[in-house]
# Entry
Amino acid sequence: DTPQDAPWEMSINCSPDFNFLGMKQTGESIPVRCSRACEEEGKLEGSGIYTPRSNVCRAAHHAGIIGTDGGHVMVTRQHGQDYYFGRRAHGDQSNDAKRTDASYTLSYPTPDYLARTRKTPRFGRFL
# Structure
């Protein structure tokens, strides 16, 4: 059985940016399942560290975490940055951007962590 406090893995398509995830605390991490890479859809600002306006799944593909068929990614809210630098990676070009109050990094989720995630949300989470 999955423990009651296990994180919920949010499944998203190409629309959501990082603001959509509703993460409020620096250091907070959540697992996300991207339906596909979302190349050239929505904004993409930064490289390695992305602005809140950036498209989640597009950033995950740009960072090399997911392929064109989508996949699992860990999203972590970070402190804001004074400046973000764009670059070309994995066939997509990100843009430079100025200061924001928060930033987001992406990483591979471990198999153990994925095994403990729930596929349905607790009442009130992400609503």
